[in-house]
Design goal:
Spore Coat Polysaccharide Biosynthesis Protein SpsA, Chain A, alpha/beta, globular, about 400 residues, 8 strands, single chain
């Protein structure tokens, strides 16, 4: 009986995190509040980009911001170079446009402190946070700004999409995951809270911003701070960026380990504050959308081990064990295909699901060892290191 209870509890946690929670949201969102939008007046925007050795992409990034259909006199782009040594600074200085500003952070101190520096010189009513390698889609800044017509809105998130490239499987999985996340975030948005903005593109009211700690994840923290300040968060899937996919599962695993370690550190501090402030809906969404996913790997291990035990004498559990074995078998084939440099195709879904789930364990271990790292490595450099290894 104990083994059976363990199997069902573990299965329910994973099932709720990935299937049950989205279904509950979809039901509750029917009674949610649709966003209020207006294209005028146009608030002043400060696009803040933290960059470390992004010489290869920073010019295209700046152009994608300056070419937006937004009044030129109400837009500025602030690039904070975090100790870059590859010519990033020179390329930013090469823009004659007075709307482009370079801030040098020396020595290198990480993304969060770079954002603090950028915000400290920003003049906009709204802060646009984005990644250096993520190019803005048409009208994306106008879409973000329009969401703040509602004075109750403190944050509006867009979504980051993955452009075509050499890594077709990561691109396909990434865009499939983006669609899944967009479904969830659009329903969360109707209920007034988005459990993590998209770090590639989101906007925040200037008055909400508080200086970040060195390892605090801005896109996870800012919706929490908006909720504590009495503001709601919204999602607009028509505001988007395009960026290259991760070069492979190794890079994706390390990226998720870093993000999850920082996430555990942040939630350990901020979840109690949400509870103390009685922000029950935001607490429920963070636990359901983030925390339960991060602990899915131990639950999957318990479900598999308990299922193997129960399958000895029960036909039903032999069937469920066969289903698990088939899923993990497909994931293993995905691993072998990647190692052999073969196309993953549909094998990418179970394989990357296992990779990201395993990253939850790695992230928790890193959290126990002292939390997340303040500095980061651009994906281009990470992929070169992966190939060298």
């Amino acid at each position: 009986m104990t083994v059976e209870i363990a199997f069902w509890l573990a299965s329910l946690v994973v099932g709720y995190a990935y299937i049950g929670y989205p279904l509950v949201l979809a039901l509750m969102a029917r009674w949610g509040t649709p966003p209020r939008r207006a294209l005028t007046p146009r608030p002043r925007l400060s696009v803040v980009v933290a960059a470390y050795n992004e010489a290869g992409v920073i010019e295209a990034k700046i152009r994608s911001a300056l070419e937006q259909s937004y009044p030129a006199d109400r837009l500025e782009v602030i690039v904070v170079s975090d100790g870059s040594s590859d010519g990033t600074d020179e390329r930013v200085r090469g823009f004659a446009d007075r709307r482009v500003r370079l801030v040098r952070q020396e020595p290198r101190a990480g993304k969060s402190l770079a954002l603090n520096r950028g915000v400290s010189v920003a003049t906009g009513d709204l802060l646009i946070f984005t990644d250096a390698n993520a190019l803005f889609g048409p009208d994306s800044l106008a879409r973000l700004a329009a969401g703040f017509h509602d004075p109750r809105v403190g944050l509006v998130s867009g979504q980051g999409l993955y452009a075509a490239g050499d890594a077709e499987a990561p691109r396909a999985v990434g865009n499939g995951y983006v669609r899944y996340e967009a479904f969830i975030k659009s329903r969360e948005s109707l209920l007034g809270f988005v459990a993590s903005a998209d770090g590639a593109i989101y906007a925040l009211r200037r008055e909400i911003y508080r200086d970040l700690g060195p390892a605090e994840v801005n896109d996870l923290l800012h919706p929490i701070q908006a909720a504590l300040d009495g503001y709601s968060s919204r999602f607009d899937g028509h505001a988007f960026t395009m960026e290259p996919p991760s070069p492979g599962s190794g890079s994706e695993f390390r990226r998720h380990v870093r993000i999850i370690a920082q996430g555990f550190t942040l939630l350990a501090t901020w979840l109690p504050r949400l509870v103390a402030a009685r922000r029950w809906r935001a607490t429920w969404m963070l636990v359901s959308h983030r925390l339960l996913r991060w602990v899915s790997a131990p639950c999957l291990a318990v479900a598999l081990g308990a299922n193997a035990w129960l399958a000895v004498g029960e036909p039903f559990y032999r069937l469920t064990l066969a289903g698990q074995a088939a899923f993990y078998g497909l994931a293993l084939l995905g691993l072998l295909a990647e190692r052999a440099a073969l196309p993953l195709g549909k094998l990418a879904v179970p394989y990357y699901f296992c990779v990201v789930s395993a990253a939850g364990v790695g992230g928790f271990v890193r959290y126990l060892r002292g939390g997340g790292e303040a500095v980061w490595t651009p994906r281009g450099e990470a992929s070169m290191k992966d190939r060298a290894a």
